[in-house]
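User: Fold this one for me? It's Inositol 2-dehydrogenase.
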Amino acid sequence: MFMLQVGIIGAGRIGKLHADHIQHMRNVRVRAISDVYIAGLDTWASEMGIPVVTSDYRDLLNDPEIEAVFICSPTSTHAAIIKEAAQAGKHIFCEKPVSFSVDTTERALEAVKKAGVKMQVGFNRRFDHNFKKARDVVQAGKIGAPHLLRITSRDPEPPPAEYISKSGGLFMDMTIHDFDMARYVMQSEVVEVYAQGANLIDPQIGELNDIDTAVVNLRFANGALGIIENSRKAVYGYDQRLEAFGSEGCVTTNNDRASTAIVATADGVQMDKPLYFFLERYTQAYIQEVEDFVRAILHDGPIVCDANDGLQAERIARAAKESLLSGRPVKLEHESAPMQHQ
Ligand SMILES: NC(=O)c1ccc[n+]([C@@H]2O[C@H](COP(=O)([O-])OP(=O)(O)OC[C@H]3O[C@@H](n4cnc5c(N)ncnc54)[C@H](O)[C@@H]3O)[C@@H](O)[C@H]2O)c1
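Assistant: Here's what I get for Inositol 2-dehydrogenase.
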């Protein structure tokens, strides 16, 4: 018998990915998976060794053997499921973002707090070996007092129009990972945001009132400044880098590639392109975030990326949207703006 049994809600891209990783782990197994569309899911689940398939996620919440659920359904469903899962006493791993509205997220998180269950938000990049190292370097004081942060975050190709229309917009869907990364590396809250955006890649994205290119300036509570730049289309692959600069130095991370070989000939110098997209680049991070969540439950340990982290990233995304629409910087209030704990 495995030490922890979990349920997966939503058997789409990310739900199946987490299920696959969990089935290869030592101390945890997926006991049940639910999706509103279960045609063909039985066969997949049986190949994965998942005994229960259901179209109603409440079956997972009512199962006493299941101690935690992974909410991997569309964002619009997260908040309601979080509340029910918390009331059922299940620990919660929720994919990002928690919801499209800060108020909705706050209400869902109240239910989590009241129930006293653990909740982790799926900001997988915190668990990426490169970004984790950058954070550790900053935390250890090796670059001195942080002054500047630069995050480059570009996708290899834009998602289909149907996805864009339900995504919550570039800031809530894509930049939200970068907003979390900014807080994580700088260990300071964002207190001001100024965002500019453009539609340069796909006119359909503009027709859907979204942008595909953005620059976001940040001011942190510790006085440091940051800049995030996004594109939905980098022809050379997934471009995910950052640099943190401070009074005593600087830490830079580069893209992961299929190999580190550099081929130099009379024609020029070549290396492999960055790994194609998030599924390739962040495999290790997706595994690590689940292992950390499982460990936190089994050993009653801290959650590295908790419900408040999910909320704060959404607050920054909302402020960025407000800034984009108004053309002005937007301030964010914090009761206190402490350094983060983990
Ligand atoms: N952390 C990451 O890197 C990352 C990557 C991709 C997606 N996501 C997030 O994960 C979530 C899902 O995204 P996806 O790309 O896997 O979407 P998807 O459309 O591939 O999968 C979602 C699945 O949920 C099912 N579903 C809908 N309502 C449901 C319900 N009430 N109960 C159970 N299942 C239900 C759908 O039928 C679908 O199969 C989104 O919130 C998204 O933002 C995170």
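One thing worth pointing out: The radius of gyration is 20 Å.
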